[in-house]
Amino acid sequence: MDTDPENTPPAPALPPMYVGVDPRLHFSGFVKAGNGASGTVFFANRVPAPHLPVALKRVSPSTKAKSKALENEIRTMHVLRHPNIVQCHEAYSYDGSVWIVMEAMDVGCLTHVLDFLRAKAYLLSEDHIAYILRETLLGLWTMHSHSRMHRDIKSDNILVSSDGEIKLADFEYTAVLTEDTPKRNTVVGTAWWMAPETVRNSYYDYGADVWSIGILSVECAEWVPPLFGMESNKAMEVIRSGATIQGFKRPDMWSVEFADFVRGCLTRDRALRYTVPDLLRHPFLDKACTKTQIANVFRAVRGMNPIESNE
């Protein structure tokens, strides 16, 4: 797998946009996959043959700001071509809605996997967690290498498939950093995953995404992020003040390597916090399982038979 962002092929700024065309004329077998804060996602198949599966996200922006955020999301998916970033094929503008056509990830978001495991009281093992985090970080490093922050990393925004693919998605809050604007100070994201500097309305950069990776790590280990039982405003106040140290509820259950990985992400001092390259070199990721092994975890969520491993 080529993970060098410099080797990704150039792409047009935006994918094809078909205005006034009903996407239901070009796709069939629509199945609702879920509702999100920004829209509704469906699985469907292209027509005519070979009926390739896709995901379609229907969004109805109600303000200019939301339309701009939608364009930003489409642009990010289309420009950043990487195996760990969901790709946008095309878009349709029809009857007040925009339909974004993306590659299909048949299991859905990582949250579905964690909810499934939580219901059965099963925990992911460290080798499974290491695989998930490594693949997520490879996508995130491509974003950072192209001067983009995600700003909303969480299990809802990581899509997985029954063949073990893991991809970053939902780029509504993505921000581009430049020489003139090397940091941002807008409070955006989802409360429980936000970095202290983001919650404080201070200037922040790529380190805010790294903090979210730390929270995601705990979420993978314990099904939900720290502070999840709190209302969002209360959680943000705790993050802002540092009154509660975020981390594992049962640190004795996890290895020294995993504990250090999480500690390096959740360091409140941005200057001392790990970077994405630091994390990609971290020995914890050496524990990552094979693609087949993680695929069989994801396939269990869909009730699919496991893949026989030849690895």
From TrEMBL:
<dbReference type="GO" id="GO:0004674">
    <property type="term" value="F:protein serine/threonine kinase activity"/>
</dbReference>
<keyword id="KW-0418">Kinase</keyword>
<keyword id="KW-0723">Serine/threonine-protein kinase</keyword>
<dbReference type="InterPro" id="IPR051931">
    <property type="entry name" value="PAK3-like"/>
</dbReference>
<dbReference type="Pfam" id="PF00069">
    <property type="entry name" value="Pkinase"/>
</dbReference>
<keyword id="KW-0808">Transferase</keyword>
<feature type="domain" description="Protein kinase">
    <location>
        <begin position="27"/>
        <end position="285"/>
    </location>
</feature>
<dbReference type="InterPro" id="IPR011009">
    <property type="entry name" value="Kinase-like_dom_sf"/>
</dbReference>
<keyword id="KW-0547">Nucleotide-binding</keyword>
<protein>
    <submittedName>
        <fullName>Serine/threonine protein kinase</fullName>
    </submittedName>
</protein>
<dbReference type="InterPro" id="IPR000719">
    <property type="entry name" value="Prot_kinase_dom"/>
</dbReference>
<comment type="similarity">
    <text>Belongs to the protein kinase superfamily. STE Ser/Thr protein kinase family. STE20 subfamily.</text>
</comment>
<keyword id="KW-0067">ATP-binding</keyword>
<dbReference type="GO" id="GO:0005524">
    <property type="term" value="F:ATP binding"/>
</dbReference>
